[in-house]
Write a structure and sequence with these properties.
This protein is mainly alpha-helical. It is 77% helix and 8% strand. The two termini are 17 Å apart. The relative contact order is 0.16.
Length: 213
């Protein structure tokens, strides 16, 4: 395989052998549906816990139970947010994989060397931000579970600091969601870049001599 740059704005991979989807693109094809299913399960659980906490408040139930539910409800809610945003991100990766294999098929069918766009900077930022966002949200979710079950187990120190801890974790959750949305924006930008390259490449095919195989 050789690396070529046919236009200043595109850095390409040129190869005589088929170039399949990358690892993130294969992961996207496999994981977008399970992530969506996880979100569809987590959101109803969070809603039910919200109703339970509202009922506990109205019935003047034990304060520890109310405080614990204050953490457990958002934990499930943000499992849902993380899952649905991951599903969108994996769907973007899947689209990029389809564009990669489809562009390869067009060039092979036309009898030309396969030239594929190397991962642009937007794609690298997309992958990095997605991983950081997932880690931030899951860290906050894990902390909510630890605090919530700790309070149910009778930990008075956690109960006393619950409000402060909730405020800190809320900030971590919001940062995670913001990074996820930014990652999705970069992912969509990557799709635009791939489409620009493929339009340019298809326009070049009629001017090139076919490869003798």
């Amino acid at each position: 395989m050789t690396t070529a740059t046919l236009a200043p704005e595109f850095e390409l991979e040129a190869s005589d052998r088929p170039l399949g989807p990358t690892l993130p693109q294969r992961a996207g094809r496999l994981l977008w549906a399970p992530m969506l299913a996880m979100a569809l399960m987590a959101f109803p659980i969070a809603l039910i816990l919200g109703f339970v906490r509202a009922g506990a408040v109205s019935d003047d139930t034990d304060l520890a139970t109310i405080t614990a539910l204050e953490h457990l409800g958002p934990a499930f809610m943000f499992i849902g947010f993380a899952a649905v945003l991951a599903a969108v991100s994996f769907a973007i990766a899947r689209i990029l994989g389809v564009l990669r294999t489809g562009g390869r098929a067009v060039q092979e069918t036309a009898g030309h060397h396969v030239q594929t766009l190397k991962m642009p900077l937007t794609g690298k930022v997309f992958s990095g931000l997605m991983m950081m966002a997932m880690m931030a949200i899951l860290l906050a979710v894990a902390a909510h579970f630890i605090i919530g079950f700790g309070i149910l187990g009778g930990d008075e120190a956690l109960a006393a600091d619950s409000g402060t801890l909730f405020a800190v974790l809320e900030g971590v959750r919001r940062i995670g969601v913001a990074m996820f949305l930014l990652a999705i924006a970069f992912g969509l930008g990557t799709i635009v870049e791939v489409l620009r390259f493929q339009a340019r490449r298809i326009g070049e095919l009629p001017t090139e001599a076919p490869v003798v195989r």
